[in-house]
Amino acid sequence: MKVQTKLIVSMFVSLGLLVISFAIVQGNEHRRLAINVLQNTSEKSKKFADKTIKLNSKSLTNFTYDYSYWDEMVKFVQTKDSLWARENLQVVMPTYNLNAIWVYDQSGKLIYHTTNLSDRHNQIQHIIPDLQRFKQFLELLHKKRSQHFFIYTTNRLFEISAVTIHPTSDPERKTPPQGYLIASRQWSKAYISTLEDLISSQIIIQTFNSNSTPTRLDLDNNRVTFSETFWDWQQQPIAQALFTVNSPSLHEFEALHDGELWITIIACSIILLFLSITLLVWVSFPLRTLVVSLETENPDLVKSLKNQRSEFGELASLITQFFQQKSRLLAEITERHQVEAELRTAQVQLQELNQQLETRVQERTQALVNSEAELRFSLAEKVVLLQEIHHRVKNNLQVISSMLRLQSRRTEIPQLKTILEESQNRVMAMSLVHENLYRTPDCAQVRLREYVADLVRHLFGVFSAQLDQIDLQINISPEITLPLEQAIPCGLILNELITNAIKHGFHGRNQVEQLTIELQWENNGQFCLSVMNTGNPLPSDLDSNSSATLGLNLVKLMVEQMQAVLEVEREQHTIFYIRGINSLL
Fold first, then answer.
1. pTM greater than 0.85 (yes/no)
2. What is the DSSP letter of 141?
3. Which of 224, 240, 332, 528 is the most exposed place for a label (fewest CB within 10 A)?
4. Mind listing the pLDDT tens digit for each residue in 356-405?
5. What's domain 445-581's architecture?
6. Looking at domain 3-250, which CATH architecture does it have?
7. Could you report how far apart the first and last alpha carbons of the chain are, in Å?
8. Which residues form a coiled coil (predicted)?
C-alpha cells in the first residue's frame, strides 16, 4: 500500500475515531447531565418529602403535646373517668387524624384505650406487648419526656407519639410524670395516597433492608428512587418508604444531544474530503520523491525540493547532509572499535588493581580490629585495677575511721574525743570520694551531686541531726564531675562547713533551719561553690583568714590547694563562697 493511501486511510480512521470519541464524550456528558438532573430531582424531592412527612406528623405531636400538660388530664389519670375521655379525647381524634389513643398511669398500667380502626387485625391493644420491653420504654420516656417513633407489624406502619403527663403549671415538664399519653396514626392506603399526591411520587412501605441503596437512578425511564427510614423507640431501623419520582426534563437533553452529534458528523466529513485533496498535492508527491532518493541513495533527486520554503525543502537539505556525513561516520566507527578494544584492556588491568587494593584494605582493617580488641581488653583490665585500688583505699580509710571511732569511744578527755571524731569525719569524707570513684565506669571522675548527698547523709547520721528540722537543698547539676585531685579537697571543705553548720549553726534552735549547698557558673568562666545555713551566725570577731580553729584552717588550705578564693558573708545568714574553681564539666 502506498504512503499516500496509508495517509488517506489514516485520516479517515482518525476522523472516524474523532467522531466516535466526540460521540462518547457527548454521551458521557449527556449521562452526567442526566445524573445531575436526577440527583437534583432526588435531593429536592427528598427534602420536600421530609418536610411533608414532618408537617403531617405535626398534628400527631401537637395533640400529645397539647393534652399532656393539662390539669384535666392529670385529674383523669387519677379518676379514670371514661365519660370525660370520650368527650375530650375520642371526639378530637378525627381533628388530629388519629387512629388510637392510650393513657397509662404512673406505674405503667393502662387506664384508657380507644381506636377508630374497624378492622380488629389492624388494632394494637398495647403499644408494646412485651411487658419487660414496655417497662424499658417507660423508663426511657420518663427520662426524655417525649418520644416520636414508628411500629411496623404485619405489613402495617404505625406512627407513634408518646409524652409524659404534667400539670398545666409545668409546661417544661420538670416535675415527676403523673402518667403517660400515647397517640397513634396508621399509614393506611388513603394516608399514603394523600402523601403521594402531595409529593408527586409513588410510595411503597417495606421492611428495612440494610443492603438497599439509599438512592437509585433509572436513566432509561427517567426516574429516581430514594428511601426514607423509620425508627422504633430504641432508635433501631424497622421499615423504610421507597419514593419513586419521574423526571420528564431529560427528554430535552436527549434531543439536543442527537442534533449536536449529526452536525458534528457532517462537518467532519467535509473537512476530511478537503484534507484528502490537499494531502495529495502538498504532502504525498514531495514525500514520494524523498523516499525514492533514500532508497536509491541518490541525493540528486531532491535538488528540486531544496529550493522550496517548506519542511520538504529542509528535509531535502538534511538528506544531502546525511549522505555527506555517512562517509565520515563510517570512519569514526572504525576508530571507535579500536578505542573500545584498548578500553576493555585497561578495564581488565583496573579490576586487577582494585582486587589487590581490596585485599590490602581488608588486611589492614583486620589488623586495626585486632589492635582495637587488644586495647579494649587492656583498658578493661586497667579499669578493673583502678576500681580495685579505689576500693582498697576506701576500705583502708574506713578501717582508719573505725579505729578513730573506737579510740574516741575509749578516751574520756572531751577535747581529745572531739578531735578524734572530727578526724574520723575527715577520713570518711575522703573514703566517700574513693567509693564514688570505683562505682563510676571510668574510675576517673567523681559525680559531685551524688558525693555531696552521701556526705550529708553520713554527717546527719553522725551528729543525729533531725531531718524534719533542717530544710536541705542541694543545687548541683547531676552532669558535674570532679577529678580525684579536686574531689578530695572539695570533700574536706564541704565536711568542715556542713559539720560547722550542724554543730554550731543549728545548735539550740527549735525552728526549721535551711542548709543550702549550691554550685553556680559565674561570668568569668569559673564555678562558685557556696554553703549557706540560716542558723546561729558566726561570731563577729571571727576572721576566716586568721582563725586558729583547725576546721577553718583546713578549709583555707584546701581552698588554696584548689587555687580558689574563700569569702564569708554573715549579714543575714552565714554563707561560705569558694570562688574561682576551674571548669568541672
1. no
2. H
3. 332
4. 888 889 888 888 888 887 777 666 666 666 666 666 776 777 778 778 77
5. 2-Layer Sandwich (3.30)
6. 2-Layer Sandwich (3.30)
7. 91
8. 336-374
